[in-house]
Amino acid sequence: MPAIVILGAQWGDEGKGKATDLLATTDTIDYVVRTSGGHNAGHTIVVNGEKYATHLLPSGILTPGATSVIANGVVVSPEALFRELDGLIARGVDVANLVVSANAHVITSYHVEIDKVTERFLGKNQIGTTGRGIGPTYADKINRIGIRIADLFDESILRQKVEAALDLRNQVLAKVYNRRAIEVESVVEELTSYAERLQPMVVDTSLLLNQALDRGETVLFEGAQATMLDVDHGTYPFVTSSNPVAGGVCVGGGVGPTRIDRVIGVIKAYTTRVGAGPFPTELFDEDGENLQRIGGEIGVSTGRTRRCGWYDSVIARYSTRVNGLTDYFLTKLDVLDSWERIPVCVAYEVDGQRVEEMPMTQTEFHHAKPVYEFFDGWGTDISGCRSFEDLPKNAQVYVKALEELSGTRIWGVGVGPGREQTIVVHPD
Ligand code: GDP
Ligand code: IMO
Ligand code: MG
After folding, report:
1. DSSP state of 282
2. Residue list, ligand 2 pocket, CB within 6 Å
3. Could you give the number of structural domains in the chain?
4. Is residue 395 part of a domain?
5. Nearest C-alpha to atom 13 of ligand 1 is from which residue?
């Protein structure tokens, strides 16, 4: 199976890190690739009881033998990159197999500053970003005033580009946000200080990946963020500034759509969201608190409490559609162990009408009220189950119902954070 995409089907934090790690250790995976986003991601992997968190790095960095790739569509903070690498090196992880695209855009200190002041400026309309400079860096890319990794190796070109960017950005910082202008030299100095360590990692990642696929090697594209956070297909403007959907992998990785063989959507057995924006099945009661507590729903990157709600199959069907999913990996089924009755959103009621598909406009989505069907709980600990038949009957019914409602098969089920706490329903 040469090219596999793993992506988030909801609002992030579905367990993409675990799914990536699982595939990377069960199949022979040669490359694990990030193609969008940056260190706004937080992926948790638990190996032999030891917990690791990756942010900018692909989770494959923990897989011996696999090459980790940060491709052109990612926005890279060199400071965050080296901090994360040093953290793993200190824990004895071999990080030698990492390559970075020369065309990836660089997050600088002024992007972080602009991210933070923009959020403050938006007041009650703020997005609740991670404050990592993601949006402003992608904005500069589209505005054609971005800095790319390759620019770090030619100081005079770098200076020209930083000058051009700050000509514009400093006007905004000073005149709109009433902040001090940022000095070109301090930015150039900081960025060039990373060049020597970075240079040996930099390659043409599109060429590398296409040649690997030509040789029949296996490439795993590890998604970050998620479908509902996609700037085109998510709950705009409450989204991130990239395309975490399957199509984004081709742009962000420099591979054509005909090369992708399998697209796995990672989805929780309930729903969570961090930051602002609409969320039809959100709970404000004891059930929501219990999902948050039992599921340990606290952000890996920002430490923020995640908003929690029931499984939303309208969103699942939408994710199946916009990503062309071939499989789902359903995570955190074990979190539901103690509920007697589990609601699942099967449709919305929008302004008095029942709708089965994602509403076309954001206004309608804001008005969407979940229509629930109820399933009997199983009231027992399933974290030790290792096959579908091991699961209690009611848990089997729940999984089969979600499969039916969500538009594609459920390939695997997570029953705990550990690599081994997984049930593969369809072994092919
Ligand atoms: P990602 O951003 O999609 O990689 O997900 P995060 O790592 O931010 O959040 C998922 C959390 O759920 C992590 O703490 C994982 O260790 C944990 N997790 C993943 N799969 C399961 C599962 O099947 N059961 C339980 N209980 N936890 C899981
Ligand atoms: P992983 O890969 C959950 C959310 C932020 C905010 C919005 C925009 O761990 O699933 P940004 O800093 O990207 O401009 O913030 O997107 N967000 C995430 N939420 N998981 C993530 O990543 C996220 N990355 C960004 O909370 O609402
Ligand atoms: Mg996460």
Report:
1. B
2. 8, 12-13, 40-43, 127-130, 132, 134-135, 224-226, 229, 240-241, 274-275
3. 2
4. yes
5. 44
Candidates 21, 30, 39, 43; catalytic one: 43
- 296 close to 46: Cβ distance less than 8 angstroms: no
Work out the angle between the directed axes of helices 184-192 and 109-122 (0-180°, nearest 10): 120
Instruction: Assess whether pLDDT exceeds 80 at residue 1.
Output: no
pLDDT in tens, 344-375: 999 999 999 999 999 999 999 999 999 999 99
Residue 327: per-residue pLDDT:
97
* Model confidence at 72: pLDDT above 70: yes
For a substitution probing ligand 1, which of 10, 44, 425 has the most ligand atoms within 8 Å of its CB?
44
By DSSP bridging, strand 98-101 and strand 202-203 are parallel
Q: Which residues pair with 330 in a beta bridge?
A: 267, 413
Active site residue 43: yes
Closest-CA residue to 209 (of 246, 256, 245, 263): 256
**Nearest residue to 209 via CA among 259, 262, 263:** 259
The CA 272 to ligand 1 mean position distance, Å, reads 11
Full DSSP string of 332-358: -GGGGTT-SEEEEEEEEEETTEEESS-
CATH code for the domain in which residue 118 is found: 1.10.300.10
Residues 209 and 302 in one domain: yes
**Over 90: is that where the pLDDT of 240 sits?**
yes
Residue 127 structural domain: 105-199
- Closest ligand by atom to 21 CA: 1
Distances 235 to 106, 193, 360 between C-alpha atoms, Å = 26, 38, 11
Task: Supply the CATH number for residue 62's domain.
Answer: 3.90.170.10
Q: Please check whether residue 33 lies inside any domain of the structure.
A: yes
Query: Half-sphere exposure of 212 toward its Cβ, with a 13 Å CA cutoff?
Result: 25
Residue the block writes with tokens 């979600």: 402
Each residue of 305-338: pLDDT tens digit?
999 999 999 999 999 999 999 999 999 999 999 9
pLDDT at 81: 98
Kindly report the protein residue whose alpha carbon is nearest to atom 11 of ligand 1.
15
Give the ligand whose atoms come closest to the C-alpha of residue 130: 2
13 catalytic? Reply is: yes
